[in-house]
Design a protein that fits this description.
single chain, alpha+beta, ATP-binding, aminoacyl-trna synthetase
Length: 521
């Protein structure tokens, strides 16, 4: 197995004057053509320096950036492929399409089925729910829905398409010649990638503090702790469309660049005003420090940012929290539009559970902001906003609204039924003696009975029982249901009727796997 420095020593780097260095902050190895650079360029080693100073030759809308990418690779011999659904029905190990390569795992990557085109380019909507509690708080560094622009090549001994040299060359030319980013601005950090059972060395493309892209050279399959050579070598790249759009505009948050007018419309509906002065831009520059999922504490991460910009955490929380919640609603409603539009039915199992969790989380955030519009109305705003780029969502608009409304009706009934359960639980000796509800019980009440933590906390504290809601509550719950390897349906809430599809919705035909047979669909 080739790993270590030799996996990254490319002729492209040598011919273009790149130097291999070790970051004095994080210790990672990286490549740069700037002889004076001592820091890898990624956050939190360095703050974002593109806010207010975009490094590209012009500002791109999200549609313009997507087209620039796909057209560039079409000109370079790649076939453009339409997006796949965000629900990974062809996979047994994951429920959602979490990366563009997931569209081709396991059948294409194993060599069983040829790719639809070779090489190909795609811009694939992806959903990841392992960072839910970061969404909105990191300025756009984390989103639950995003598009992964990618170019993929599948090579074998009989058919060599391209490998490391060409991959890095294409990447560098897209950033420099197409987008106008100076070569000195780009760092390539050495890394190792694993996903879906496949693995390989990779390079992370960094510009002004933010990771824009990942170039994976997938050549191994991990079996029982051992790495075995794959029958084909796979170029697995990922270019973050939203991040590329963001740096081209240099806005204080990615949400302004990605959503445009919809951003201001949502703030108006929520009654949220933009912070005055430079505090938003200054705090977002240190978004790399705001990882609540890793630290487990919003206050601790907020304090780090407050120290950097010379203010106190409480003031920063008061100023930014309403905007952060509004941005989370903006993100989550787009995610739900895609989930429901691609046929996910909220339930208590598999992808349906993740849709249910997100509907309820979004509803709770909307309530905390005092938003009077219905959740389904906000979903339809998303459908209308993305109509030109994803017309298929418009075709499912009535279905999206009906599913959302029915799920929220069910949610309200669940809360009413569950309040009595909490009362009985509080009579347990252990809880009465400690006057504290364990976090695990809080999660169980949500996971099994659908009771939101805020409701449980209110009931408990009225009876003198303390409750601490983790800052990462929704992420913890989502991760328990992220893949098919997780245990079956939770007990309680959805035994019986709730595990069945909604009554009143049109019946859906049985899914047939045709993504590889008919790639033009």
């Amino acid at each position: 197995m080739i790993s270590g420095p030799e996996a990254y020593r490319l002729e492209f780097f040598k011919e273009n004057g790149f130097l291999r260095k070790t970051c004095k902050s994080c210790g990672r190895n990286f490549w740069t053509i700037d002889p004076d650079r001592e820091i890898c360029g990624d956050s939190p080693c360095t703050p974002y320096s593109f806010i207010g100073e975009p490094p590209t030759k012009k500002a791109y809308s999200i549609g313009e950036m997507r087209e620039a990418f796909l057209s560039f690779f079409e000109r370079n011999g790649h076939a453009r492929v339409r997006r796949y659904p965000v629900v990974a029905r062809w996979r047994e190990d994951i429920f959602l399409t979490i990366a563009s390569i997931a569209c081709f795992q396991p059948h294409v990557t194993s060599g069983e089925v040829p790719p639809p085109f070779n090489p190909l380019a795609i811009s694939q909507p992806c959903i990841r729910m392992n960072d839910l509690d970061n969404v909105g708080k990191t300025g756009g560094r984390h989103m639950s829905v995003f598009e992964m622009m990618a170019h993929h090549a599948f090579s074998s001994d009989q058919n060599e398409v391209y490998w490391k040299e060409e991959t890095v060359k294409y990447h560098h030319e897209f950033l420099t010649k197409e987008l106008g980013i100076a070569g000195e601005e780009i760092s390539y950090i050495e890394h190792w990638w694993e996903g879906g059972g496949d693995a390989g060395p990779d390079l992370e493309g960094i510009v002004r503090g933010i990771e824009l892209s990942t170039l994976v050279f997938m050549q191994y399959r991990k079996v029982g702790g051992e790495y075995r050579e794959l029958p084909i070598r796979i170029v697995d790249t990922g270019y973050g469309l939203e991040r590329f759009t963001w740096i081209s505009q240099g806005t204080p948050t990615a949400f302004q660049a990605v959503y445009g007018k919809l951003f201001s419309d949502l703030l108006s509906i929520a009654g949220v005003e933009m912070p005055e002065g430079e505090i938003l831009a200054e705090s977002t520059k240190y978004a790399g420090l705001m990882n609540i999922v890793d630290t487990g504490s919003l206050r601790a991460t907020r304090a780090k940012v407050a120290e950097k910009i010379g203010t106190d955490p409480d003031s920063l929380e008061r100023i930014l929290s309403p905007l952060e919640k509004a941005m989370a609603v903006l993100d989550h409603t787009k995610t739900l539009a895609f989930m429901l539009g691609d046929g996910i039915v909220p339930s208590n199992v598999k992808a349906g559970y993740l849709a249910r969790l997100l509907i309820r989380r979004t509803h709770r955030i909307m309530q905390s902001l005092g938003i009077r519009s219905s959740l389904s109305d906000l979903l339809l705003m998303q459908v209308d906003h993305w109509r030109g780029q994803f017309p298929e969502l418009s075709e499912r608009a009535d279905y999206i609204k009906k599913v959302c409304d029915l799920e929220l009706e069910r949610y309200e009934r669940t809360i009413d039924q569950g309040k009595a359960l909490v009362g009985r639980l509080l009579n347990l000796k252990g809880i009465r003696e400690t006057k504290r509800l364990p976090v695990e019980k809080l999660i169980e009440l949500y996971d099994s009975n659908g009771l939101p933590p805020e409701v449980v906390k209110e009931i408990c504290e009225a009876q003198g029982i303390s409750v601490e809601i983790p800052d990462t509550f929704d992420t913890i719950v989502a991760e328990r249901h992220a893949g098919a390897s997780k245990a079956g349906p939770p007990k309680g809430e959805d035994r019986g009727d709730d595990s069945r599809p909604f009554e009143g919705l049109p019946a859906l035909p049985e899914t047939k796997l045709v993504y590889y047979e008919q790639p033009g669909l």
